[in-house]
C-alpha cells in the first residue's frame, strides 16, 4: 500500500488534471468532485483519502466493503459495483449511496430494505450509455421506465446518473458514452420535472473526456492508489 505522502502527491496531480480539463472547457473545478475508489486496496486507502479531506469513497463489492467499514469511522461509503438483489439488505446497512441501481427489481428490493431500516437510501441510476455488451446498467431506452418506478419508491432518493465507458475502446467512444449520459439526464430531468444533478462518470483513464461532457463526480482508483493490490 502506498504511503500517505505518495497518495498526497497523486492527489495533487489529479487536481492538476482536473484543473486543466476544466480550463479547457470553461468549467469551474469546484463542480467536479473526486470519489476515491478503494477496491482491491486495504482500508488504509480510505483512511488516506479521509486524512486528505475526501470523506466519501467508492467500493465495488459488498463483501469487501463489509470488511473495511468497521475499521474506519466518519467515512461515507458508496457502492459503485453491480449489486445482486440478495445482497440488497447488506448494501442498505453499509452504504450511504448506491450508484449501481440498474433495474426495477433491484429498486423495489432496496426500497423495502431501506424502509425496514428506517432509512432513505440515496441512489444513482446506472445506465449503459456506451452500449457495452459486457457492462451492467440499464439500457438507455429502459431508463425512463426505471426512473418512473424509482420516483414512486419513498425510501429511495435518486440524485442522478452513473455510467462506465466501454472498456478497451478509444476515448472517442468514452466521450460518446458520457455525452449520451448527459443528454439522457437532461431529457429525464425535464420530462419528469425532477432534479438529477449528479453525473458520476470518468475514471483514471478517461476523466478529461468525462469532465468535458459535464461530469460532477469522477471515480478514481488507479491514479490515486496505484495498481490494485489484491483480488
Ligand atoms: C474500479 C472502478 C473505478 C476506478 O477505476 P480506475 O481506472 O482504477 O480509476 C471507477 N468506477 C468503477 C465502477 C469501478 O469499478
From TrEMBL:
Organism superkingdom: Bacteria
CDD domains: PLPDE_III_YBL036c_like
Listed name of the protein: Pyridoxal phosphate homeostasis protein
Family recorded in the similarity comment: Belongs to the pyridoxal phosphate-binding protein YggS/PROSC family.
Family matches, as PANTHER family: PROLINE SYNTHETASE CO-TRANSCRIBED BACTERIAL HOMOLOG PROTEIN (PTHR10146), PYRIDOXAL PHOSPHATE HOMEOSTASIS PROTEIN (PTHR10146:SF14)
Keyword Transmembrane helix: no
Record InterPro entries: Ala_racemase_N, PLP-binding_barrel, PyrdxlP_homeostasis
Annotated keywords: Pyridoxal phosphate
Role noted for this protein: Pyridoxal 5'-phosphate (PLP)-binding protein, which is involved in PLP homeostasis.
Residue(s) carrying N6-(pyridoxal phosphate)lysine: 39
Domain Alanine racemase N-terminal, residue spans: 11-227
